[in-house]
Amino acid sequence: MKPLLTRREAMALAAGAAGAAVLAGCGKPDRLPSAPARVAIVRAPAYDQSIYDTMRRLLREQVGDVKGRTILLKPNLVEFEPDSSINTHPIVVHAAFEAFREMGAAQVRIAEGPGHRRNTLDLAEAAGYFATVPNFEDNFVDLNLDDVTRVFPSRQFSRMEKIYLPNYALGADLLVSMAKMKTHHWVGATLSMKNLFGVVPSGIYGWPKNVLHWAGIEECIADLHAAFPRQFAIVDGIVGMEGNGPIQGVPKQAGVLVAGRDPVAVDATCCRIMKIDPGKMRYIRLASGGAEGSIAESNIEQVGESIQSVATPFKLIREFRRLRLEA
Amino acid sequence: MAGAEFAAASGAAPALGAMSVETVASKQNPDGGWPYVRGVSWTEPGVYAVLALLAAGEMGPARRGLNWLRARQLADGGWPPQAGVDESTWVTSLVALIPEEHLGPAAHRRAIAWLTSCMGEESRPLYLFNQWISGNPRSPEKDFPGWPWVPGTAAWVAPTSLAILALDKEQRRRPSAGIGARIEEGRRFLFTRMCREGGWNHGSVRALGYESNPYPETTGMALAALRGVQAPELNLAIPVAQQLLAACRSADALNWLRLGLMAHGQLQPGFCPPLPIRYRTVPEIALNLLVAEAQKGGEVLWS
């Protein structure tokens, strides 16, 4: 990993020093000198073989040294509909799997804990993962059924005082959230941070993981983000979903992969690509740790394509039209 | 769960196959419990394994499994999903399916008491009062309490179906007005959560006005819980279950669809699951054995 202190790591340190008053919104953490988050936007017009080379270059440039590390790739697997744009496309996940192995990772596993359907491997098979990823079962962990550890969130936003999390996810050197770029009928958009709902084990909490809704969806997103400090985010926006996402929306071609070490900055950038104002997204504001200026476009180092060159408005349901990014 | 796959166990109205019984027994952990595939012991696979072994007369591993389960009962009378978890959840319904002569009368009685006191948070008086104070409209979907996955959250189709199965079994053995009332409310809950076309998903009939589709596994569970009920809604639900059965390739879903259709005498005689079906987890294998027993006339989940 890069030794450089990122904005995200600096935020975590600052929050820890500032304590509960900061979490309660009573103060702002002291700013530590930090590097601006870097987010890469790369064009990827289709789910074809070119994804492998695109992903290889993207990860080599953005992730850093992963030799000897354990990597967990966390796609978004929701429903048994391979031709829809609900799930992270398997070729994107396989491309990352191959790239991390080529980069010398000691172990790369694909892991997911779907929130609605309990037969995870059947779901993965229907979603095309068995056909795309050789020996898929040998390289997959069902996070719904993994052994768990009780965790007390260090930075608590939600009403959940404790949460059981899967040991495989807690133990990974790098958790790579591989989300789908989708609108979401409860929180506006589901991107790399919301994708972490899939690490909460349904074997403990059920299908759906309703405990997260009762504790506050947006607050839980921020809590889970804080619970996994070693993250990398990749958002599959090649074909995303607009309208009544995350399941019943319609496909929306954006033709991009968006990636970076700071999930808050990656999600903020994805929002701008979707023509959604990240400053109006409550969970992004929460996860930014009180430093909302850090999600300003000017404070994120964009590499690759510019936001303006790839931005395309995702249709929003009536309840979320207020999130639209003004010109 | 890497690399997990057990031998395919499907076949024409399969008998309680010795190989699958052995597979279940062979997956038993040294502590007496069962994992889903491998790893630590969980309550759900433990219950299905014990039920299948009891049906097969394999008393040795069943007894060790029962000991593991008894030792996991929490002070409130319920069971946690995994050893080390400090809260009772929906798996208490599964444990209560084990006949009391095997689980132990005291443990079973406390499990039933836990179940009768458990309900979706949206049906509790305090929640309803808060909604009324807040001026929120009362939803007719919330008139009938079901069961949650985890206490303190809303009721859903699968945990409600399993709770009904457990309480109905108790009601046949030891009739009680209180239990009868909860069963009736639970069944009404299921009907309010039926998809418009028939069948059930996890319990969300529509989101923001959009209709949602049924799932095979929850449709089977709900039909199993509605055994003996005569209602016009079943005229929609049973054909949906039959359509799902014809298209389904998931072992868990096929198990529950067969049980659900059998509960209404609507499973085609001699039906065998399409090949290849992969039975990957202990619950899938064990429940398949119980389905086979039911196809032979056994009352594994109901008596």
Written description of the protein model:
The complex is a heterodimer of chains A (327) and B (303). Chain A has 327 residues and is an alpha/beta fold. Helix content of chain A is 30%, strand content 22%. The longest helix of chain A is centred in the first third of the chain and has 13 residues, at 50-62. Chain B has one domain: Alpha/alpha barrel (Glycosyltransferase), CATH 1.50.10.20. Chain B has a two-stranded antiparallel ribbon with strand order 1-2. Residues 1-16 of chain B have low confidence and may be disordered. At the A-B interface, helix 5, strand 4, helix 8 and helix 9 of A face helix 12 of B.
Quickly list its features.
heterodimer, A: two-stranded antiparallel ribbon, disordered N terminus, B: 303 residues, mainly alpha, Glycosyltransferase, two-stranded antiparallel sheet, 2 strands, 1% strand
The unreliable regions of chain A are: 1-33
Q: How many structural domains can be distinguished in the coordinates of chain A?
A: 1
Number of E-type strands of chain A: 11
Structural classification of chain B = mainly alpha
Gyration radius of chain A, rounded: 18 Å
Oligomer description: heterodimer
Shape of chain B: globular
Tell me the strand percentage band of chain A. 15-25%
The CATH architecture classification of chain A is 3-Layer(aba) Sandwich
Supply the CATH architecture of chain B. Answer: Alpha/alpha barrel
The CATH topology of chain A, please? Rossmann fold
Order of helices and strands of chain B: HHHHHHHHHEEHHHH
